[in-house]
Each structure stands twice: as structure tokens, then as C-alpha cells.
Amino acid sequence: MLLALLLACPPDETEPQGPPYGMILRDDGIVYAGAARVDITPTITETYEDLNGNNQFDGCYTDPSGTRGGCDEPYDDANGDNHFDGTWIAGFQTKRAAQGVHDPLTVTAVVMSLDGEYVAIAGVDVIGVLENRVRDARDLLEADGFDRDRLVVSSSHAHSSADSVGIWGIDEDLISGAHEEFTSSITAAIHETVSAAASEMVAVSPTVGISSFDDPEFNGAPFGGTNPDASVVQGINDIRDPLIPAGEVLAIALDGDEGRVATIVNASGHPEVSGSDHSQLSADYPGVVRDYIDGSAGGTTLFVSGALGGMQSALGAPIPAVDASGARVLDENGDPTWLTESNFDFVYAWGVHIAQAAERALTDTQAWDQISVKHSEYLIPVDNTSFKLAFQIGLLDTPDEYVDQSSDCPGYGTNPDNFGCVPGASSVLRLGPVTFGAVPGELFPELFYGVPDEPAMADSTLRQGDKRWVQGDPDCAGIDWGSECVDTDEVDGNGCTDSGCDGKCDCLNHHAEPYRASDEHPRTIAEMLPGTYKAPLGITNAYCGYIVPTPDFSTYVSVLTDDGDHYEETNSCSQSFGDLVLGGFADLAE
Fold it and tell me: Is residue 440 part of a domain?
């Protein structure tokens, strides 16, 4: 009778279920990991005739024949709707419609656990995943029992990916570059890869480390190297004064009994080295990094971006050529063969160099003591002209309901330039001895690593003629940036003795003196992070453009003005972004 009664009673639905997706969450001191990858490359349904060869659609989106006045290029109206349904490439110029696919765009995820704690890191081959799309992915995972706060999504910022933000369509016609079908597929792919990776978890042994490009070939003469470009340091051509490179490569290898399960590679530098003289979708060098390590070590490689702002890029920097095996290509004298032109040969070589640096980094096999992730959330005011206009005219892949226009938004209702706020967070992700400082945008390296203790940081005249400092206007000697230059393009100069001076200080090529990361927060992000190996993790769980040090932010610069050496401000949500990010890490450090 008792057995019959037990069989008749339905199970208690309040009883705790097992871990989501069959994850391994054991309190046994062992690290478990799984990895997965999904292709998100959009299907290109309509292309155009690039009659002038500028890789930019110069027709009219409602004139397939290209015969109407001013409509110079026809397109293939495949679905007959009299509308050009181009797949817009994000990065560089607008109206850059994809004509083909060079290599796939993907979402890759690695899920790790230790002693019952777990985290998922997803890397996406797009210029930036906006917060609302990450929120949607968190909702899907949470519905399956996965803790939403344990998801970390990092965008690679690939400049030949399909537009996931919306500002690279046809600007004069206010055509958004973001297609709902593609951007929603990102959310679905994050959910799919995380769930698949979680279901494939096995016991792993981690190896970690950090390496730098100390090889003389990656550094110009002022930095003790042999690179033909004197301003190149650690392979990076930092194009904003002052030169503060982020050339470190961090790597994590997760090896199981049957071989490599996953490799995580973190590196800085814009994935833009294919340039803009093509119309092919591509993951840029992160795709090469993945393919190279997958092929040499096995498993699934996850690439996540580091500090990109300031502006960190190998574009235009001479790098050594490599062959199909990854070996250096030397001339008859045994010297490097240099690549300088932005194309897919350059992409391949730079990706191989990053991958080899990652493999060199893998030296530390110490046992992990923890896996954790913590977030300090805040609202980022949208008070910079570029982002404000993009929100107002509906270009961005963010519905109005995701914008906070309440008293919780700092400055909303009192600052006429404030359109509202978008959510962001500073996050600390600990993986054993490795700690990532994750941020919702393109981080300037000085915010993470700090400002060098150099006299030139306090006096820009000391930068003149020194290739370590690549910008500066002699007419600005004695001009106080904060009180005279921060909100204009030109003021009367003084103190200039150079015969070439015209007596006008070009504020767009002037910077805060002394140059500093913040007036509110004295510590760098690295100083506020625990752990042995520390690295920046860029464009995480949101994207709000460049994170510029607040003291050096030009409030004059926007998409409507010239920008000089302050380009990054044209693509940043707010002057307060840098201090908000630092403040978030300060809260977490407490």
C-alpha cells in the first residue's frame, strides 16, 4: 500500500533540479571545462556593381538599375522589393556592403567550473554586442537555470564583420546597418554555444601565462628594436598621443585526458588589419589566431579582446612576413621580409604572431584556487553628440525601452545634452591566478596599466622630435587643456619659439597636461585587481564606444566636427565613461 501511495504522488516540483545542461559542479578541487563554436555568418542575398572600385555602395537603395540621377551603381534586387538589402560591414566608412565572405564570423564559448562555482565566457566576431542583446541571452540562459550573472560576453571588434550596432549603413538616408535577423542570431548563438559547452564539460588541467612582443623586429629604434617604423612598439602603432601600448598576450590552455579542450587568448589591438579596401566579411586576425591554435594544439580556441583604445592597432605597422607553416619569411641576407599593406596576407601574419605569442605564454601550471565573477553596475549617460544622434534617429540596435530616461540616470533632465543612460558594468573575472578586468567598451590602456612616469607626461614640449610621443602642437606650449582647449578647436598660442609656428594652438592635437587617467580615481585597474596575471577584457556585456580618460576628453569633438588626435571622442557615449569604469573597479576592490 505504501508503495502504491508513493507511486501515486507526483514528485515535488520545488525540489532542486540538477545543474543546467548537465554541467559538472563538483566540490572536489578539479577544474572542469567545455567549449563550443557556432557560425553566425549572415547570408549575403544582394550585392551591387562597384563601378568605381571604392568598396562603397554609391547607388540609391530604391533604384536597382542605378539609372536615376545621382544613383550611380546598380544592385541585384534578388527579392524584388525595390530596396537594397545589403549586408553592411562595420568599421571604417559607412555604405560598405559585403560582396562575399572571406572567412566565417562565429560565437565561441568556454564554460568552466571549480568547487561548484562556474562561469561562461563567450567571444563574438562583431564590432560590439549591445547590452540589450546580452540581456536577452542572459534571459534565455536564466530560463534554463543558468545564473545570468555568470555569463561574460566579449566582442572582438572585428572591422570586417557584419554591422551589429547600426551606424554603418547608409548614413545620409538614415538606413541602419544592423539587420534584426543577424543581431537576434547573435543572442541565439550565445545561448546555443554556452549550453553546448556546458554539456561537454570534462576535467582539465590549466596552464596559463603572459608574453610580450620583446623581439626586436616588433619594436622601433627608440624602443631598442629594428622595426623600420620608429614609433612601433610591441607590434602596435599607437596613433593617439601619448604612446602607451598594450602589447601583452595572455593565454589559458585547458587540457583534458584526451587532449586540448580549449585555449583562451586575450590580446589588444584593433581587428582591422585587413583594411577597408575590400568588401569581404571576415573575423580579421582573431579568426587566424583560432585556426592556428586549433590546428596546432587541438580543441576550441576562444579569442577575447583586450585594451583597444588610444588607439591600439597593428594597422600600418611593419610586421615580419610568415609562410603557410607560420615560419618567418627571410630575404637573401637572412633579414625579415616586411609586410606593411593592409590586406589578408597581413591579417594572416599578424594572427600567427599573436597565436605564437600565446603559445609561448603557456608556462604556469599551478593549481587553481577559484573561479568567480563579480560585477559593479552603473548607468552610462549618453551625452556625446555621435551616440546621442544615433539613438535619436533610431540607427542603433537598441529599442527605446532599453534606454533609462529616469532620475536614476545621472544628468537626465538637468543636462540638455543627456539623451538618457544605458547600462554597463565593470567586472572582475577570476580564473585561478588569472584576473580579467572587464569593461563595456574600448578601453584606453592607460586606464588599465597606468601612465608612465616620464617628464613628457607633464610637458608636451618634451615630446617634440621624440618618436615615443607621436603628436603635439608646439603652439600649445603653456596652454592649459582643461580651461582653454577642452571645448574648442583652436585658441591663441603662446610660448612658441619655432619659426614654423603660426601662433594658434591646435586644440585637437593638444592633450591634458600633466597627462593622467583620472582626477577622481588614483589607482589603475591593474592595481585594483587581485591575482598573478592581470589582463583587460574589452567590450564586455555591452558596447558604448571608447573609454577615454576623463581629463583628456574633448567635449568639442563629434561626428559634426574635425577631430585631430581626439578621434575616439566621436565614438564614445560620455565624457564620464572613464571615471565610471574606474569607479566600478574601486567599488569591487573594496
Answer: yes
C-alpha of 505 from chain center: 33
pLDDT single digits (tens) 517-545 = 999 999 999 999 999 999 999 999 999 99
Residue 109: exposed, middle, or buried by beta-carbon count in 10 A (0-12, 13-18, 19+)?
buried
H or E element, residue 350: helix 344-361
Number of domains in the chain: 2
How many residues are given for the chain?
590
Q: Give the span between the Cα atoms of 254 and 31, in whole angstroms.
A: 9
C-alpha cell, 331: 630575404
Terminal C-alpha separation, the chain? 60
Look-up of cell digits 564559448: 109
Distance of CA 224 to the CA centre of its chain: 29
Taking the C-alpha atoms of residue 523 and residue 375, their distance in angstroms, rounded to an integer, is: 18
Tell me how far CA of residue 519 lies from CA of 82, 162, 260, 516, 524, in angstroms: 54, 38, 45, 8, 12
* The model's pTM: 0.95
- Residue-wise pLDDT for 54-112, tens only, equals 999 999 999 999 999 989 999 999 999 999 999 999 989 899 999 999 999 999 999 99
Angstrom distances, CA of residue 81 to CA of 34, 64, 98, 351 = 44, 10, 19, 41
Q: What is the chain's alpha carbon radius of gyration, rounded to the nearest angstrom?
A: 25
Q: Is residue 544 part of a domain?
A: yes
Same domain, 389 and 422: yes
Distance of CA 569 to the CA centre of its chain: 16
Give the whole-angstrom CA distance, residue 89 versus residue 41.
Answer: 12
DSSP letters for 241-253: SS------EEEEE
- Spatial distance between the Cα atoms of 24 and 256, rounded to a whole number of angstroms: 14
Under 8 Å CB-to-CB from 549, ≥6 apart: which residues?
444, 446, 447, 512, 516, 517, 518, 578
Same domain, 384 and 306: no
Which amino acid does the sequence have at 560? L
Residue 234 lies in a domain: yes
The whole domain housing 540 covers 106-197+371-451+517-589
Cell reading at 119: 562561469
